[in-house]
Amino acid sequence: MSAQSPGRPGPEVVEVALASEHRPGGGEDELRAGLAERPRRIPHRYGYDTVGSRLFEEISRLPAYYPPRAERTLLRDHGDEMARLSGAAELVDLGAGSAEKSEILLAAMDARGLLGAYTGIDVSLQPMRDAARRLGARWPTARVTLVHGDFATALPWLRDRGTGRLMAMLGSTFGCLTPPERSAFLRALRASCGPRDHVLLCADLFQPVDTVRRAYTAGCAGERPVRRLFALNTLAHLNREYGADFDPAFFAPDVVYDVTRRQVRGEIRSTRRQRVTLPRIGTVLDFAEDETFFHDVLHKFELSELVRELESFGFRCRGHWVEEEFQYAALLLR
């Protein structure tokens, strides 16, 4: 673990690096387990290196991709109530990215005279650094901390490091976790929360099929196929970080909406029989022609189902808001 400040004028920004070796298996057991499943699965977070984070920002700006727009509407319309109910002086941004939507919450907290600190947590550091410059310029007296790590390392680190915080998981990150990953996350989140902390969690609800298909197939083709680039960058990330030898020319991304399971799946198909090695984790993968594996799975919730799941881990819902046009929800938990 290390702390440092980027060289820039203005308020100090503290960076904390949580190395993956602090988790069992150095974070590699998770990857091995996903690749051993059938169908194979690359855990969601491996798509969000610096390149992947930038590509996802492009996806977020596509006109048909409604979740960011719906979430901004919720935060603008109800951010003041969220700030009032939580009474939080610090925003802890779980999966911070560029923090553009988080800035709406920070403004609501500031308007109530509450804002004292911002802590961003993400596996990709550069987007947080860019956000820190912007936030520091707007709120020069707020303490800014950037935590470079995943939830498995960051949540234990957060324990006993503050009180009266608002732990916010914006975007669709919660829905991208598998049921076992959601359980592990909620247990760790509950353990990291103090008695005065609140949690703000956003999730995509079940909505018309055509709306979903338009949203999640946008960017799959055309001059700038950002969804295809995002999917293939996941393979490039494994090549860089784990010495893998995926050849993107022989893999074809696609997006499938499984209505029965209420899942949007980012799939990658092997276009021929081939062997891929990941020497740094001692893994060899033999793909059949047309075999598909997942790099992104988004679960769409019924609101009552989501509340029951959260309450089963000891959280109490203090309020919820739903954006009516696209059925996007935000829940405030204690």
From TrEMBL:
Domain of life: Bacteria
Gene Ontology molecular function: any one: methyltransferase activity
Keyword Ligase set for record: yes
Histidine-specific methyltransferase SAM-dependent domain mapped to chain residues: 29-333
Pfam families: Methyltransf_33
Protein name in UniProt: Histidyl-tRNA synthetase
Matching InterPro entries: EgtD_Methyltrsf_superfamily, MeTrfase_dom, MeTrfase_EgtD-like, SAM-dependent_MTases_sf
SUPFAM superfamilies: S-adenosyl-L-methionine-dependent methyltransferases
Ligase in keyword set: yes
Keywords of the record: Aminoacyl-tRNA synthetase, Ligase, Methyltransferase, Transferase
GO biological process, one term: methylation
